[in-house]
Automatic annotation (TrEMBL):
Entry-linked Pfam families: ADK, ADK_lid
Functional summary from the UniProt entry: Catalyzes the reversible transfer of the terminal phosphate group between ATP and AMP. Plays an important role in cellular energy homeostasis and in adenine nucleotide metabolism.
Name used for this protein in its record: Adenylate kinase
Record's keyword terms, sorted: ATP-binding, Cytoplasm, Kinase, Nucleotide biosynthesis, Nucleotide-binding, Transferase
One GO location term (cellular component): cytoplasm
Alphabetical list of HAMAP family matching this protein: Adenylate_kinase_Adk
Keyword Disulfide bond on entry: no
Protein residues bound to AMP: 31, 36, 57-59, 85-88, 92, 161, 172
Length: 218
């Protein structure tokens, strides 16, 4: 299956993408991984992307699209892929459509993870990270530490990242609504969108998504 995963920040896209890709035996292709791989391997696209990033500028769509096309052309993506974080706007969606059409391929589904905005803010703004080890992550509501602001694992101080503050989260949501959400209408016009609730336990959401996708492919 060839799938695009969309949803607001805090919808759990990365977590769901990893589980779904494993269950469907297709590669999980995320924008972050594309950038890291191209930059570390010093590909031409990676060098170009780094030059924009080092200057504090956004990487142009055509560079991101080029990376995605190269990745989708690799052998492990021959039978499908799950795109996470790409396309991020309508122009990238149109470029993806064209690239797939040129290869005689098409998307099977666009999975839209739906989460109420207040829940997104609650999920992200409640995160607390350990200063000693950023892999130690807690949540003031869902997985609180035994002692407030103290890491259960190493005793380090827990803090709230600037990106996780409510004001910043709401700005990120504004960007999502303005730039990324319109791709849902783009794909609805093609009859590709499958919307599911991303509320509940991780495995419940995964099962919901698998059922919806299998219904689409049936």
């Amino acid at each position: 299956m060839r799938i695009v995963l969309v949803g607001p920040p805090g919808a759990g896209k990365g977590t769901q993408a990893a589980f779904l890709a494993k269950n469907l035996s297709i590669p999980h292709i995320s924008t972050g991984d594309l950038f890291r791989a191209n930059i570390s391997q010093q590909t031409e696209l990676g060098k170009l992307a780094k030059s924009y990033m080092d200057a504090g500028n956004l990487v142009p769509d055509e560079v991101t699209i080029g990376m995605a096309k190269d990745r989708m052309a690799q052998a492990d993506a021959e039978n499908g892929f799950l795109l996470d974080g790409f396309p991020r706007n309508v122009s990238q969606a149109e470029a993806l459509d064209e690239a797939l059409k040129a290869d005689g391929q098409k998307l099977d589904a666009v999975l839209d993870l739906e989460v109420p905005e207040d829940e997104v803010v609650k999920r992200i703004a409640g995160r607390r990270i350990c200063r000693n080890d950023s892999s130690h992550v807690f949540h003031v509501t869902y997985s609180p530490p035994k002692q407030q602001d103290v890491c259960d694992v190493c005793g380090g101080e827990l803090y709230q990242r600037g990106d996780d503050k409510e004001e910043t989260v709401r700005k990120r949501l504004d960007v999502y609504h303005r730039e990324t959400e319109p791709i849902i209408d783009h794909y609805k016009a093609q009859g590709l969108v499958v919307t599911i609730s991303a509320l509940g336990k991780v495995d419940e959401v995964t099962q919901r998504a698998m059922s919806a996708l299998q219904g689409e492919s049936a």
